[in-house]
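# nightly structure sweep
# worker-07 picked up a monomer target from the shared queue
# config: single-sequence mode, recycle default, output format = structure tokens
# input follows
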Amino acid sequence: MSETPSTLHTAVNLAASGVPVLPLRAGKVPFGNCPSCAGNACGGRPNMKTPGPCSCPGVCHAWAAATTDPTVITSPPWQKAWHRAVCVGYHPGGAGLTVVDLDDADAIAWARTALPATLTVPTTRGQHWIYRGAMTSRNAVRPGVDIKSRMAYARWLGHGTGVMAALPDAVRALAVKEPLAPRRARQSLTAPLRGHGGECPHRTPTYLERGVAMAVQRITDARAAVHATVYRTFLAVLSTHGRCGCLTETHVNRLFTAAQAKGESPRHCTDAWVNALTALGL
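# output follows
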């Protein structure tokens, strides 16, 4: 597709406002590295994860190629890319922004209840919610939701509507990953957890029931960062009740049911449970 005046005009205007831009080719993806940079031969930006010393004048290294320099944007190497470009991309993190990419109607409905209102831009299938502030990028933080900020690019789709809000903790929490745990056989959920012996410190079943009920309520009340909330709740339950053998299949199923009602998959529930067990050495 040939470059249109408006595409390059848009890129130059965005760059002038401090937004690093790059051309995107068919498929809305960045241009590949030039022959000199293929296979990271230039020594810079390995796997596009971090900036490097490469000084290639071409449109290399995806998000790391984004620039606000009008001389680079209109240079002959970039002109070749603009002639093939279908749209303008930008590096949100480089502009101090975070894009919450909502891919469908369900994701949008979730955002309206879980996140503060901000500048909103329509996309082909959903919306971009743009916040002021940069953070770690992460895809698939929940069904239909990606975060694009540092070390990522987004497609420029216009100025949108609404007032841009400051990046909230609810969005930052979405990028929090559960701690990695060594692979081990999954805990059977068909029998109570086996403790280490000794008298149960809980004295009465009421203490355990109240604790599980509070944990279920904590998961049910989560309005954001559901992944992290589920893991931390499992961790809290196991740290208190996981060593004496009191937890039964019924208790665990209540926790899993609450998590799945918030959109978590059975596999994620099991993984979170196993990770919590491993973190506590159970």
